[in-house]
Amino acid sequence: MRxxxxxxxxxxxxxxxxxxxxxxxxxxxxxxxxxxVADASALLKMVADPTRLQxxxxxxxxxxxxxxxxxxxxxxxxxxxxxxxxxxxxxxxxFRKEGRVVYYRLLDDHVTGLIQxxxxxxxx
Length: 124
What we know:
Helices cover about 60% and strands about 15% of the residues. It has 6 helices and 5 strands; from the N terminus they run ββαααβααββα. A hairpin with a 2-residue loop joins β1 and β2. It has a 3-stranded antiparallel beta sheet with strand order 3-5-4. Strands 1-2 form a two-stranded antiparallel ribbon. α4 crosses α5. By secondary structure, the chain is an alpha+beta fold.
């Protein structure tokens, strides 16, 4: 029984609450491919680092240069640059140059939504 309802497959009752093999196969077909899962996992690991999440949170507010990010987060410019390089490789941030100054921002609305949702969830 599952939630008080008997599941029947091939005219047999399934008493242990488990899905019939055909339903299991249908669910398997709806799962993302392993490469997509690996990429998503890498992205979430990147965001899971507290320093990088602080950087992303600051960039969620506004576009900033390395020096300003370092001041806001309280890290050296070298450490911030290193973290930004990692974030760029995962396509979480992008940049633009204005003369010799490089300004960073979140790549797109997907990243913005991810950061917003993670922080809102943590606040609940």
